[in-house]
Amino acid sequence: MSEDLAEWLSDSNEALSLQLVRDPEDEDVLYAQEKRAIEPFHPTFTYPIFGEREKIFGYKGLDIQLQFASGSLRQFLSITYDSKLNSPATPSDEIEGTLYKFIPPDYTKSEMDFSKLVEKDSSEFKPLGEKIGSYVRPAATSSKSKGKGKGKVSNGEELKEDDENAVVFEMYKATWNTPGFREYHRRMQLFILLFIEGGSYVHEDEDSWEFITLYEKRKRPAADSDIWTYHFVGYVSVYPFWCYPDQVRLRLSQFVILPPYQNQGHGSKLYSTLFSQMLSRPEVAELTVEDPAEAFEDLRDRNDLRFLVSNGILDDPKFSIGIGPSDELSRSERVKWESEIRKKYKITQRQFDRLLEMLLLKQLDLKDEKELKKYRLHVKARLYRFNYEMLSQMTLEERKEALAKTYESVVEDYERILEMTFH
Ligand SMILES: CC(=O)SCCNC(=O)CCNC(=O)[C@H](O)C(C)(C)COP(=O)(O)OP(=O)(O)OC[C@H]1O[C@@H](n2cnc3c(N)ncnc32)[C@H](O)[C@@H]1OP(=O)(O)O
């Protein structure tokens, strides 16, 4: 492309901005840190919409605003620019028509209509489906909770849902059979394309999808008001696959917490709620995860580790039985014990192996050469099984070297995860 034409290129991730909008009356109640919830943010990916290069051609000063009513997620679209290239030889990209294929057609382009809609929605919108959980967090820096939480999610012990300093977060479970949910899902699914690498829309004709949505719930600030407003934070979708002979394997497919709410512990709360839900369902054999992003893998590891520890795994007398070179009896005892615990907690085999290896490392006395060697052999034996096909084609020397390298990087990663989980 010539230099002149390059001037007409915009980065689509920067040009598109998103915003969750609540009624002005409900914005006033937000403390400084919480204002993030209503500020504009950018997508991480736009290639599914605007193409692999994430560029839009034909405009200068391009600004695409897609705003969402914070609860109902009804949308407002505005496309503005300083100038547009008008050349039949090099036509400008169509923006609205392109976006139209990905969002429901009932968006508005009228600011006035949108503010009326937000006003109405914020007092009327209620999450769809069945409430399955909630937790409270101190309002970010109110005078009473000063220094207490700094916006962190509390463990829910000090605050009650009706405490005036509490902000409540609620989770709702829905399926396609939940009245109105299909339409609602069409409004929220855009976040999958914009924030999950390789994310794509689910097929609405697959019947069994299950969803958990997460909302911030706040009381309208007016003194005599008894209106509670709900603001979308994120969601997770799972699909049950048949698992021989008469159970299902739940596959976590999509998981997103919107940027204004990230790094505040909400992802962990949503994941652990899904986890305890599936533990309580007798028909579920295990929870698997489809193509996890790195940040999600970390979140899952942290939560699974805390779960196992809080359920007393470190105090189990069989925790370190049969590690490394050991007699037949203790090895078979280990296999039996691992299989029982894994099935009880419905964790997939590879994930369970990794979690146990991390916990064994956590308990290991690194100065004890003998114990360290046992641990190394234990991890290497699993890595060998896991990578058998590749390793079996190597010479003995190459194999040793490859295993040693993999071991080093695996242990380094375990140390990183342990540090952020138990620091
Ligand atoms: C199968 C799949 O769908 S994979 C795709 C996963 N989704 C995506 O990648 C979409 C975009 N990203 C996201 O949606 C989110 O960033 C997620 C889901 C990956 C993580 O959700 P979050 O709510 O940010 O996670 P959470 O806040 O629980 O933990 C993240 C960080 O916050 C920190 N944190 C946790 N609790 C708190 C707290 N109470 N206060 C402050 N920080 C906290 C954690 O230490 C963690 O930081 P670290 O990873 O550097 O240690």
UniProtKB/TrEMBL annotation:
Protein name in the entry: Histone acetyltransferase type B catalytic subunit
Region (Disordered): 137-158
UniProt subcellular location: Cytoplasm; Nucleus
Family to which the UniProt record says this protein belongs: Belongs to the HAT1 family.
Site, Interaction with histone H4 N-terminus: residue positions: W209
GO BP: DNA repair; subtelomeric heterochromatin formation
Role according to the record: Catalytic component of the histone acetylase B (HAT-B) complex. Has intrinsic substrate specificity that modifies lysine in recognition sequence GXGKXG. Involved in DNA double-strand break repair.
Assembly description: Component of the HAT-B complex composed of at least HAT1 and HAT2. The HAT-B complex binds to histone H4 tail.
Residues the entry annotates as binding acetyl-CoA: F255, V256, I257, Q262, N263, Q264, G265, H266, G267, S268, R302
Domain N-acetyltransferase: 202-291
A Pfam family annotated for this UniProt entry: Acetyltransf_1
InterPro entries in the record: Acyl_CoA_acyltransferase, GNAT_dom, Hat1_N, Hat1_N_sf, Hist_AcTrfase_B-typ_cat-su, Hist_AcTrfase_HAT1_C
GO cellular component: chromosome, telomeric region; cytoplasm; nucleus
Histone acetyl transferase HAT1 N-terminal domain sequence ranges: 8-197
Record keywords: Acyltransferase, Cytoplasm, DNA damage, DNA repair, Nucleus, Transferase
Enzyme class: transferase
Positions of the UniProt region annotated as Interaction with histone H4 N-terminus: 52-54, 239-241
Reaction equation(s) it catalyzes: L-lysyl-[protein] + acetyl-CoA = N(6)-acetyl-L-lysyl-[protein] + CoA + H(+)
EC number annotated for this UniProt entry: 2.3.1.48
Active site: E290 (proton donor/acceptor)
GO MF terms held by the record: histone acetyltransferase activity; histone binding
